[in-house]
Amino acid sequence: MAFFTQKVWVEWIEQGLANGEYNYHDYKDLSDIEQVGSSKVYKALMKKDDIEIMVCMKYIGNKLSTREVQSELKLLRKLQFFNNEYISEFYGITKSEINDRNQLKYMVMIEYGDGGSLREYLQNNSENLHWSVSLKFARQLSKAIAFLHENNLIHKNLVSG
C-alpha cells in the first residue's frame, strides 16, 4: 500500500473545492466543545446566505491517510444529498487559522444539534431525564442507523458526541 502524505490529500481537497464538489464557508467565534477519541471538536458560527448558523467543526486528517480522508469526505458528501432529519447535515469545508507549525488545516463543518451533542445533553440532564425522552432518543438513533444501513452507508465512528 502506498504511503500518502498530507500534501496529497490537501491538494485533493483544494481540487474538490475548486470543482465545486464541496462547499466552502467562512466562520467566526471558534471554541472548543470536547475531545472525542483522538479528535477535538469545536463549535463556531458559519455564515450561509446572510444567516449565521451554529456548526460543529472537526479537523480533517490529523493522522489519516489520503484514502481515509477521501473516504470520510465522500461519505459526508453523499449524506449531503439525502437530507435526513436524523442525520446531521454536512455543510462543507473551511480552512482553519495557520497553526504554530505554520500549517494550514482544513475542517469539516457539520450541523450543530440543538442543545449540543447527545453526550453533552445526557451529562447535563441525566438526573432529570424522563424515560420518555430516553425512548425518543433511542428511536431517533435507531432510525438514523437504519437509514445508514438502507443506503449502504458505513460510519466507522458512531458515538454519542
UniProtKB/TrEMBL annotation:
The keyword Translocase does not apply. Residues 27-161 form the Protein kinase domain. Keywords: Kinase, Transferase. The keyword Kinase applies. One of its GO terms (cellular component) is cytoplasm. GO terms for biological process: regulation of autophagy. Pfam families: PK_Tyr_Ser-Thr (PF07714). One of its GO terms (molecular function) is ATP binding. PANTHER family: SERINE/THREONINE-PROTEIN KINASE UNC-51-RELATED. This is Kinase-like domain-containing protein.
